[in-house]
Amino acid sequence: KAGVTQTPRYLIKTRGQQVTLSCSPISGHRSVSWYQQTPGQGLQFLFEYFSETQRNKGNFPGRFSGRQFSNSRSEMNVSTLELGDSALYLCASSLGVGSGTDTQYFGPGTRLTVL
Amino acid sequence: AQTVTQSQPEMSVQEAETVTLSCTYDTSESDYYLFWYKQPPSRQMILVIRQEAYKQQNATENRFSVNFQKAAKSFSLKISDSQLGDAAMYFCAYRSPNTGNQFYFGTGTSLTVIP
Questions:
Q1: Nearest CA to CA, how far is A62 from chain B (Å)?
Q2: Rounded-to-integer distance, Cα A103 and Cα B6, Å
Q3: Tens digit of each residue's pLDDT (9 = 90 or more) over B23-58
């Protein structure tokens, strides 16, 4: 099976712009979670989508939003970019059923730099 | 909210030696799952090992094993016969069915392997 893919891998934006990141989960996985990873804060949970619905949400401002499509692919959008949004954004997919064997599998990440 | 604590920001080990990474967590749940993930430099995060809380037997995957102490809420990772390829950031993670599919991650431990 193909792994989790994320596009683009690298992005450079300026303050005030908006950006959309994409994540394609492993085939058959219905849950997609997004994380922001920075050296100082570690992995911070943004939100999780399951069957096109946001199921969990972290403590991020409303500038961060997402959605999931019927094929389980997910997009994350950040509006009005700030310098502090520079980070590695990781996507993880899982079956989403909460069973013991359900594990998150991570994509390679999108490195966002805000200038 | 559940918290996962990794008190060792950095660790080092001589090649072929054994190292133990610590992880503690705070939860009132009795049913949950614990994970160790590895993130090599500039590479994808991968699952190392997984433990179900209801299992008393410690999980083992080749050179990787855990010491799961449920009463103490401790979940340490032991790496035996350390290899250069083990150098990475290691994250401890927690998930409970009662909190949906959300994963809670620690801040990570950076492991250096000395030749």
A1: 19
A2: 20
A3: 999 998 888 999 999 999 878 899 999 999 988 899
